[in-house]
Give the backbone structure.
Amino acid sequence: MSESAANSRNRCTSQIVIPARLASTRLPRKLLLRETGKSLIQHTYEAALRAKRPEGVCVAADHDEIRREVEQFGGNVKMTDPNAASGTDRVAELAERMDCDIIVNMQGDEPELAGEAVDLAVSLLEENPDAVMATLAAPIRSREQLNDPACVKVVFDHAGRAMYFSRSPIPHPRQWDDGLLDADPAAFYQHIGLYAYRREFLLKLSQIPQSSLEKIESLEQLRVIQGGHAILVGVIEHAAVGIDTAEDYGAFVQRCAAG
């Protein structure tokens, strides 16, 4: 058997699931906003299609309006429980119906996430069979971002395994030096909320009780870390801008017009 055929045979199968909730809190109905001529969910769906490793993309919808919009632009969509506790639960609900090794949870408000970033998260699990999850991080280069609790930070070891996630600056310098923001490799990393899960682990995740650290930080990934499971972190150069507010969306519309 040739090397290429062996690699193809050993490669994990993967699917992207985009959890899509209509009633977003800070920017109501944001996934249906369409000032660019396309809805935000369509932009994100098309970004997901740019990834090369996953075999397919599916939207996990909680409302008929989301379903109709995805069907209108020709996307793959499945309805999920409107009372699901989180996007992760919505993704897991679809994972139960899927026959693949890896499930990628890509947020519906990440229309500018690069396909290469998705592929990186998938490849980490393909190459490290002992890990149950993979995620991404990008360097933090401003003190404002470092101190912002909405910007989740991550530290990881030399093997790329996450050690901790926090809303606080980590590591916390005993004495501040502006040069830390220019360090190479970076001293601080922003966590990017894309996850690749082994399907079997994802199906068990909702059954694992919330951990004490998760409750304090309100970060679900700490449940995994505190439970002793490995999360691998892939580093990309720049974080994509998620759409959380009207200002975020307005800036996205301007970038689309300019590009």
The radius of gyration is 18 Å.
